[in-house]
Design a protein that fits this description.
The chain is mainly beta. The protein has a domain of 66 residues: OB fold (Dihydrolipoamide Acetyltransferase, E2P). Helix content is 10%, strand content 39%. It has a 6-stranded mixed β-sheet, with no helix packed on it. A two-stranded antiparallel ribbon has the order 5-6. The protein is elongated and about 85 Å long. The chain starts with a helix and ends with a strand.
Length: 114
């Protein structure tokens, strides 16, 4: 094995830099989701794994035990669904986490700036 081949083997083993969480901008909401990352990259459904909580119609089942009301009686249990209406819209900023090969991005939530 030549020195050049050996050097290439070491280079191939080097860890790629991790870019960490990134912020993207929704340019088209679901179902045909498109998110712009930087100036040139457009991510679509094929490149995104999306948290359910940012999709339209997302609901969670809830149970509240031992609730009380302002009336004279008390409620011992409430079962139901809690529906969220803050789904992704055009112009929203989102938090993205890239996979190690940067071929898939995990859209974990909306981003909020103060």
């Amino acid at each position: 094995m030549s020195m050049t081949e050996l050097a290439q083997l070491f280079k191939d083993r080097e860890n790629k830099p991790y870019f960490g969480p990134q912020v993207g901008k929704v340019i088209s909401p679901p179902p045909g989701l498109k998110v712009q990352l930087g100036d040139k990259i457009i991510l679509d459904n094929d490149h995104l794994v999306i948290a359910a909580s940012v999709l339209s119609g997302y609901a969670r089942e809830i149970t509240i035990d031992g609730a009380t009301t302002t009336a004279a009686s008390s409620i011992t249990k409430i079962d139901g669904k809690l529906k969220f209406n803050d789904y992704l819209k055009t112009g929203d900023e989102v938090i993205l986490i890239p996979s190690t090969d940067e071929q898939t991005y995990y859209l974990i939530d909306k981003a909020v700036r103060f």
